[in-house]
């Protein structure tokens, strides 16, 4: 990356958007604080904005040159904020409106991947409790039940018996009217961080929990992060390439993360894409960046440089 893009004076006055009103607000506050501190330590004229209903007015009166989006979930990661920034003519980090909206919607992400012949587990959309029994007959057990438009594993459940399916649906439905039942993939879980056009070293996730849930992500000390991930170079490179193809398929750009499983037959299965991943002490993109020799401050500067892209 050109040194001029990493020169603090290149960026002008930067608004770091964090907090917001989504279910992931608390995580976003932590991510935003870390990003803001990193930018300021590098000499960037960066200012934090806890996003509320008046964010457009704050951006207008603040005379900002560009925006670093550290918002997770709805209103920040789903194309809504990106559309507002487009209207204001403010450059911003990460994916554009289309990539953000598709990436946030797990159902449509899977539809796009399936249409592009990319491997993703078989699934059924659940619109009501009446859809649970047909989904069970079609997919079998175990199942992963998840709201289509939430992140951080909020509202997700692994279902291992038919009795628990309706309760799992009801939990997911608290967060979204669109719920997905997905065939459970037994195997190892990996994540591929994307920075620009590069997939960073893979991380293998190991947890004693039923799956990599909210607590395993942000609180548990029992979660293991293996990087190097243990795969041979050829296999890791193939999965990194698949992650880039999956990222491109939904129109994502700039930076992000693709999560996937690898089954007992060494076959990868794409699970979801994150267009504004966490930047906390437990977060995966900074971890992968460190493995690639990229410090947290440098990572943040390189993400900020994605706001320099001519188009999204």
Descriptive keywords:
alpha+beta; single chain; six-stranded antiparallel β-sheet; 312 residues
How large is the count of helical segments? 12
Distance, first to last CA: 18 Å
Low-confidence stretches: none
What structural category do the secondary elements indicate? alpha+beta
**Major sheet characteristics:** 6 strands, antiparallel
Please give the radius of gyration in angstroms.
19 Å
Q: Topology as H/E string?
A: HEHEHEHHHEHEEHEEEEHEHEEHH
How helical, in percent, are the residues?
25-40%
Describe this structure in words.
There is one protein chain. The protein has 312 residues and is α+β, with helices and mostly antiparallel strands. The chain contains 12 helices and 13 strands. The strands form 3 sheets. Strands 8, 9, 10, 11, 12 and 13 form a 6-stranded antiparallel sheet that branches. A 4-stranded antiparallel sheet has the order 4-7-5-6, covered by helices on one side. A 3-stranded parallel sheet has the order 2-1-3, sandwiched between helices. Helix 2 packs across helix 12 (296-305). The longest helix is centred in the N-terminal third of the chain and has 17 residues, at 25-41.
Blueprint (SSEs and pairs):
Blueprint: H1 8-11, E1 13-18, H2 25-41, E2 45-50, H3 55-62, E3 66-69, H4 80-88, H5 97-104, H6 106-115, E4 123-126, H7 132-139, E5 143-147, E6 157-159, H8 165-173, E7 179-183, E8 187-195, E9 198-199, E10 203-206, H9 214-218, E11 224-226, H10 233-249, E12 255-263, E13 268-274, H11 284-291, H12 296-305
Parallel strand pairs: 1-2, 1-3
Antiparallel strand pairs: 4-7, 5-6, 5-7, 8-9, 8-10, 8-12, 10-11, 12-13
């Amino acid at each position: 990356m050109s040194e001029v893009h990493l020169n603090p004076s290149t960026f002008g006055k930067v608004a770091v958007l964090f907090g917001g009103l989504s279910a992931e607000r608390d995580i976003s506050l932590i991510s935003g604080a870390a990003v803001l501190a990193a930018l300021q330590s590098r000499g960037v004229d960066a200012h934090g904005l806890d996003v509320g209903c008046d964010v457009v007015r704050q951006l207008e009166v603040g005379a900002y040159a560009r925006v670093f989006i550290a918002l997770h979930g709805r209103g920040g990661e789903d194309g809504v904020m990106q559309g507002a920034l487009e209207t204001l003519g403010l450059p911003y980090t990460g994916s554009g409106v289309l990539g953000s909206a598709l990436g946030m919607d797990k159902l449509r992400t899977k539809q796009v991947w399936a249409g592009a012949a990319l491997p993703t587990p078989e699934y059924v959309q659940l619109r009501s409790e009446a859809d649970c029994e047909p989904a069970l007959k079609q997919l079998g057990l175990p199942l992963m039940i998840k709201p289509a438009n939430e992140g951080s594993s909020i509202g997700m459940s692994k279902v291992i018996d038919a009795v628990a399916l309706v309760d799992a649906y009801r939990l997911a439905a608290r967060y979204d009217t669109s719920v997905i039942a997905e065939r459970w993939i037994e195997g190892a879980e990996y994540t591929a961080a994307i920075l620009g056009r590069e997939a960073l070293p893979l991380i293998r996730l190991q947890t004693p929990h039923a799956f990599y849930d909210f607590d395993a992500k942000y609180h548990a000390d029992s979660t293991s992060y293996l990087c190097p991930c243990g795969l041979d170079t050829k296999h890791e490179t193939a999965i990194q390439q698949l992650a880039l193809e999956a990222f491109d398929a939904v129109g994502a750009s700039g930076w992000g993360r693709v999560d996937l499983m690898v089954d007992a037959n060494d076959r990868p299965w794409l699970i979801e894409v994150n267009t504004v991943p966490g930047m906390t002490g437990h977060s995966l993109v900074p971890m992968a960046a460190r493995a690639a020799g990229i410090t947290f401050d440098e990572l943040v500067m390189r993400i900020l440089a994605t706001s320099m892209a001519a188009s999204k």
